[in-house]
Amino acid sequence: ALVPLQDTPVVRIRFQAEITVADPLRVVMAAAMDGSRPGADSGTTTWLFHMPQPIPPYLMALAAGNLHEKELGPRSAVFCEPEMLDKAAWEFEGVEPMIQKAESLFGDYPWERFDLLCMPPSFPYGGMENPRLTFLTPTLLAGDRSLVNVVVHELAHSWTGNLVTNANMEHF
Question: How many whole angstroms separate alpha carbon 171 and alpha carbon 144?
Fold first, then answer.
């Protein structure tokens, strides 16, 4: 069971998740990955996650699909469909220097990993700063790194928004 839960930012939650999908789908989540195991049913895989830091419920997010991964640095990777993987990895390869610059302004990065999920074209937003896994529109893949400022914006929310946020939805 995923919900019900009290969906107000002042309430912070930690959680564990086991999500089973048909093979060869992969699950990613705005949480720490604990690996995977064969599902109870043949042809399925169960993906395991936990969120050690308390977060507001609106930041709980997951995605499943034909997702592949490429490491960008010591604490970041990009996930997306295989057709977009090399393009996304090239576009976002400067993530580690972004994290380091942000840390010089705001203090240590509090979430351990800053992974990126490049969504399908139907994702209507620039990005969403879920802790540990930022969701990004594929329209950022301009081929010239001219739109990576959106990644910087989402990274800044790792401190302002994900650590410090409003007390309730009315204050958004």
Answer: 37
Per-position b or e across 16-33, b if 16+ CB within 10 A of its CB: ebebbbeeeebbbbbbbb
Specify whether the CB–CB gap between 130 and 31 falls below 8 A.
no
In angstroms, the CA 142 to CA 138 distance is 9
Check: CB of residue 66 under 8 Å from CB of residue 25: yes
Report the alpha-carbon distance of residue 132 to residue 117 in Å, rounded: 10
Residue with tokens 């969403």: 128
Report pLDDT digits (tens) over 29-85.
Answer: 999 999 999 999 999 999 999 999 999 888 999 999 999 999 999 999 999 999 999
Residue with tokens 């064969």: 38
Q: Specify the residue for token string 């994900």.
A: 162
H-run or E-run covering 80: strand 76-80
Main-chain phi, psi angles of 3, to 5 degrees: -135, 165
- Measure the CA–CA gap between 131 and 51, rounded to whole angstroms: 9
User: What's the predicted TM-score (pTM) here?
Assistant: 0.93
